[in-house]
## 1
Amino acid sequence: MPSVNQSEKTISMKIAFCGPGQSGKTTAVEFIRAQRGLKEQKAVEADDDAENPSGHSGDETKTFKKYMFQLGNVKGFKVFVTMITVPGMIFHKAERGMLLQDVDAVVFVADSHPERVYANKVMLEQIREMLYEETRGDLSKVTFVLMYNKRDLPNATPIDEMEKFNIWKIPYVEATARTGEGVNDAFKKAVQGVLTRL
Ligand SMILES: Nc1nc2c(ncn2[C@@H]2O[C@H](COP(=O)(O)OP(=O)(O)O)[C@@H](O)[C@H]2O)c(=O)[nH]1
Ligand SMILES: [Mg+2]
């Protein structure tokens, strides 16, 4: 649940960028950070312990990024967003569960590379399962946005193929995180989804 503080007039929400390894989560979050100039403002990096929660090595970046910033005002309330990336390769369920705690929205960054379509499906199912537990069976408490990333690839999987695993009809955005195309759109959809539930 987003937390609303009536006396301080603030709304705080947590948005997680999830997806299989190498799908473009970090690239997307870094784009948002850079665009909003969060470095000077309030880029809060996770502490070292949280940077590598699993301790595993592999080809994916295991680092997890966390940024907190003020988004703007809605009906006189200041809106604060905490944005995190949830690494694809965390082997212990408990660790990913910890990152997903109190998440209000998930931007699921799916990889359009033909060889990654199945990985997208597996990861999305896992994330939904974890959030199903986290929300005690009420997934309507979490806004989902599918960001079909790497649309610039010449061999990008056609959207109707990608949509085959989207059995929940999650709204989607086509994106190229490398250039930033579609990233803000996905982010805004997530924020709006949370705000409309308030
Ligand atoms: N072609 C292409 N490559 C991308 C795009 N987004 C990310 N990448 C590349 O995919 C790789 C993994 O990106 P990264 O953001 O680290 O993935 P993460 O593991 O999900 O955080 C990097 O080499 C990125 O440059 C994109 O939209 N198009
Ligand atoms: Mg990453």
Note: Confidence is low (pLDDT under 50) at residues 40-62.
## 2
Amino acid sequence: MGSLFSPSFFFFLLFLLSQPFLLILTHCSPHASLEYISAIGDPGMKSPNVRVAFEAWNFCNEVGAEAPHMGSPRLADCADLRTPFASDQQDCSGLGSDSNCIVLQKVSESDNKLGAGEKFPSERFKSYLDPDLYVVEKERYLGSLCEVHDSSNPWSFWMIMLKNGNFDKNSTLCPENGKKMTKLITDRKFPCFGKGCMNQPLVYHNYSRLVSFDKRMVSLTGGFYGTYELDADLNNGIGKNSYFSVSWHKNVSTGSWIFSNQLTTSSKYPWLMLYLRSDATTGFNGGYHYDGRGIMRKLPESPNFKVRLTLDIKNGGGKNSQFYLIDIGSCWKNNGDACNGNTTTDVTRYSEMIINPETSSWCRPNNLASCPPYHVSASGEKIYRNETSRFPYSAYHLYCSPGNARHLEKPYDICDPYSNPQSQELLQILPHPEWAVHGYPKKQGDGWIGDPRTWELDVGALSNRLYFYQDPGTKPARRVWTSINVGVEIYISEGATAEWNVSDFDVIVPPDARDANCCSY
Ligand SMILES: *[C@@H]1O[C@H](CO)[C@@H](O)[C@H](O)[C@H]1NC(C)=O
Ligand SMILES: *[C@@H]1O[C@H](CO)[C@@H](O)[C@H](O)[C@H]1NC(C)=O
Ligand SMILES: *[C@@H]1O[C@H](CO)[C@@H](O)[C@H](O)[C@H]1NC(C)=O
Ligand SMILES: *[C@@H]1O[C@H](CO)[C@@H](O)[C@H](O)[C@H]1NC(C)=O
Ligand SMILES: *[C@@H]1O[C@H](CO)[C@@H](O)[C@H](O)[C@H]1NC(C)=O
Ligand SMILES: *[C@@H]1O[C@H](CO)[C@@H](O)[C@H](O)[C@H]1NC(C)=O
């Protein structure tokens, strides 16, 4: 009797439990990676058609004032590659000669030029005089022109986000932790050359057009580019002006879009950001408190989702460049509830891995205020930041707390209260063996200049381990990420340039992931 508990069976069990592959099977079988599906409208960037939108943000992710003759800072390039007489389903790329193919533009120049106060061609969209309200309608309008109905869950476009880090403390354009102020009193320092430093850029557009290779392979190419210097004439070159450019081409061997990006800062605009965003098709997306449009039909939720992409960096943007190998953004309240657009209680949550090897760890044993209160190890163990012999300080760049949190553990740093429409919480991590278990870079320099890589990042598992603030005793928030971004933030530096390519981007989720257009979560 008792054979089940014989010593040999016991050791066999121990042996089984010590085998990592078996643990993985038992823990993850409901979501085995084979069952994962793409969450986005353009899986792996393989669509022959172009769906790209452009958005420009001032310091608090609004418009403030439109640039002269530029309209509201939302544009789109949505172009279908078609054979003229074939059905919609006919694939034009790779077939026959280019003379069979045409480009169908969904968005006209007059759509892209629409500016505050102008009527939309469709009655469904309301014309506001306030540029901050108009831009939201314009994004929804452009989204409606670009919408692809290839499932019950329509999607619109990839989003290119450009942000100006100048902040005029004499203006009242940006609220403080989501509260409108009549006067700002702060010791924080921000770049601003004087009146008008928060301006929107000049944006130029190369509409998608046909290109062919050897008269066989036909595809589209196009781009957006421009500058913040309103007096610049880019026909004479970039000169000492700020500059951004994003263009898309097909990789003829893989069929993926290649997004080629450049961002250059200047003395007047020393702090700029340029990201490629995969935003939810509807609803709030990271950093924004209005209904936006995007490409993620299903919402990735920790711990079960992954992100694939190829990143090839040619130029890093200097020592202050924070190059993000994935920035994830979401919103939830400090009591764990989903956001509802009330900027006094909604909190933007960001986490990003910075892969510039020149970025140091601000989180240190002698600067615990820049560390999260604890680290969660891969096995689920909490390690407090004061456990100096065990806490992996070098896995963190910095942590800062939301400005509207009421039960913070000392010491703490509050995140910049002005650079978002509402309070924000920020957790910036660095390449480290702690994160490498999820497919992230293991050491600084991995994936940097001259080391192009195709990453498969278990962003879901990693983001599940991160500390985010909540009021004591509240139910943990569902970590549903409405924006997944890759790109660069060049922090205060003059004349720095970053250049990089992104391709093969995909977000993969279990089939039962929540639809973006379903409901609030
Ligand atoms: C803000 O006001 C102060 C005091 O009037 C002035 O010295 C400063 O130049 C102003 N800053 C900007 C950006 O206009
Ligand atoms: C726009 O088109 C011009 C002319 O073909 C080209 O030189 C430039 O590189 C293009 N820029 C982008 C961002 O597409
Ligand atoms: C196209 O993809 C192949 C395979 O991943 C890669 O080797 C090549 O460098 C890519 N081409 C460009 C222009 O990025
Ligand atoms: C990015 O892609 C472009 C267009 O395919 C290619 O010419 C360029 O060499 C690539 N740059 C990098 C940094 O890979
Ligand atoms: C936002 O939330 C605060 C705190 O719960 C509440 O006092 C305020 O009335 C809300 N504002 C709106 C516009 O609902
Ligand atoms: C370390 O931090 C934890 C959590 O804040 C606290 O309970 C503990 O007393 C601290 N230990 C030391 C030695 O300060």
Note: The radius of gyration is 24 Å.
## 3
Amino acid sequence: MTTTDQSVFTKIILEMQLASGDQIEQCQRLQAAEVEVGKSRRGLGEIMVEMGLLTAKQLETAMAEQRRAIKEIVIGPYRILDKLGQGGMGAVYRATIPDTGVDVALKLLPKELSNDPNFLARFRREANIGMELHHPHIVRTVDFGEDKGVFYLAMEVVEGGTLDQHLQVHRTVPERTALKIVRDLLGALQYAHEKALVHRDIKPSNILFDREGKSKLSDFGLVKAAEPDPAFMTAGTTVGTPHYMAPEQARGQPIDIRADLYALGATLYHSVTGRTPFAGSSAGLLMNQHLTKQMPPPESINPALTPGCAAIIKKLMAKDRQLRYATPSEALDDVLRHLRGETPKALTPAARPHPRPAHHPSSETISPAKPAAPGQTAGRKAPGATQSAGAPSRHRGPAWTKQWPLLILTIAVSILAGMLLMLAILTSGSRPVAHADAASEPTSAPAPSAAPAGASAPAATSPPALQPGAAPSGRGTARPLGSSPAH
Ligand SMILES: Nc1ncnc2c1ncn2[C@@H]1O[C@H](COP(=O)(O)OP(=O)(O)OP(=O)(O)O)[C@@H](O)[C@H]1O
Ligand SMILES: [Mg+2]
């Protein structure tokens, strides 16, 4: 028996002699085991029906009796009105202080834990902290105490249900709405961070909505195990599902606010894809996946997701916390950027995973053929740079080629003239000095460009056949940068 209503329920079952104490305990163990692997907590009565211990009619009768009995329960100054929900550590009731009209959400903790002095010390310390938190997106803790061995925490009642309940019905939350929830919760986390507090259990069931739909983070300051703690597990309770747990938290390392950022990222992942990042049949398997496995990219599950939102999720959920946002406010800035329609910083490295110098040779050949995506400034500039600076270089080869016929003609004329001159000398006996100088003119024309220009712009001065080999060497990069001599 872990909660008051279960105490009442089992008392009724025993009084009606519908099941034995052993049978009830067996069902409670199954109930706790299901919660531990991340399943929603089922009612004890539902499990008893499934096990064949109760008929549906008997369950109905026992529940009606339970509702009547619960209303007679008074804990501290609070009279219980009805049950608001059930968590891993206990039940939450709507309760009132009689004759005042003040209603609270009363969280009752399992009796087993009240025997643990360490737990109680932490409960008191953290409940005190919780009461000092005043933020529009944090559920207010208004009171805590103990009555007849039952520890309770009184909070403001938040009427609109939890994100978990919403996801169970609607499966997903529209991206923009989900990001606005995250924006508000990041504000709450930044507020806590400035007080050196870490929540440690961010998950959809700890995100409540008020009647206007405003989100609020609950269980802040509520005593929880900072790391998987066998004492919590064996008490038939859970530290929260491991679906959203940061790797360092699963490892049992000291944690900081970045573990909350991871869990918030996992919550956002769940909200926009309808799935938790990992699935597993046990808490251990789930934690192991957070430690070692790459999650399916959120955009692979929801292709309508914007790249900015997917990038924000991935940054929040980086396994290495150094790669996450350093603080909630840094994450908040990025979410706001994305909500304004600007490119979030999280997207920048993903968009340019291999930044390379603007003058890299491959940019000359690949970029012009492949239109650059908007925002890829390096990609956009490269084609333009290549075209403008590359134009002269393309003309240099053909310019040389155009001169060859003239040279050949000149040489041929010279040889012909020389032969005629020789013939004239042989026939006349005179020496051909002036004509010999004229014959050297065509061969001297390529010489200046072949040697000195080869050092500064070899591709420009090489025969066209050599240019493909020159380009990958990197020397070809000089051409787009406009360092070739004028021709
Ligand atoms: N302040 C509140 N106002 C209204 N309903 C609440 C409030 N706090 C909790 N509840 C309801 O009680 C349910 C149980 O909450 P609880 O915090 O005990 O469990 P949990 O968050 O699901 O699990 P865990 O015990 O691991 O935190 C919630 O799902 C919600 O429906
Ligand atoms: Mg909770």
Note: The pocket of adenosine-5'-triphosphate (ligand 1) is lined by residues 84-90, 92, 105, 107, 139, 155, 157-158, 162, 205-206, 208, 218-219, 238, 240 (CB under 6 Å).
## 4
Amino acid sequence: MELDDDIDEGESYSEHVDIDSARKIIFDLLKAVGEDPDREGLRNTPDRVARMYTELLSGYNADPAKIINGALFNINYDEMVLVRDIEFYSLCEHHMLPFIGRAHVAYLPAGKVIGLSKIPRIVDMYARRLQIQERMTRQIADLLQTTLQPQGVAVVIEGMHLCSMMRGVKKHDARMTTSATHGAFRANLATRQEFLDNISRGSKPLQI
Ligand SMILES: [Zn+2]
């Protein structure tokens, strides 16, 4: 038996990726870059990579309604709800290389809150697509705005982009911060400041 820690990879994600053609394309890509796809170390690589994409790109299949799945609660609470340091892994759509980092998500409820575990799952749903960080930030904010209709939403994402880091010259661009806001976080300086103070308190610089 082959010892392969990737063996279970992508098991439950396979619906939307055409594994056969992805496998063939990876095989051809290996040839195109001058490799021998038939040598021992690469023999299972096309299959492994094809299946990996079913997992890394599983966000296309995710249905926000299913993720939220009744975890909305009517409650009389109007203070800021903040989930910070949500780890994420995404792929940049320009190079298909990873960008990884953390997301901070806050909202000011207006009668409705969402189950705490749902926010990281929403981040994951958008991260597991070919993305640019700016759009991902906006999508998270927009979904929460639509779903919760709160007084406001703020999302800040810090990401490190391997396409900048690995390709040498522009290493200083590797770390990027993006933000998207709605409502009170946009209109009210004190609310925005409270959010920024909260996410910077005790935080360490993003590192790989
Ligand atoms: Zn890129």
Note: The radius of gyration is 20 Å.
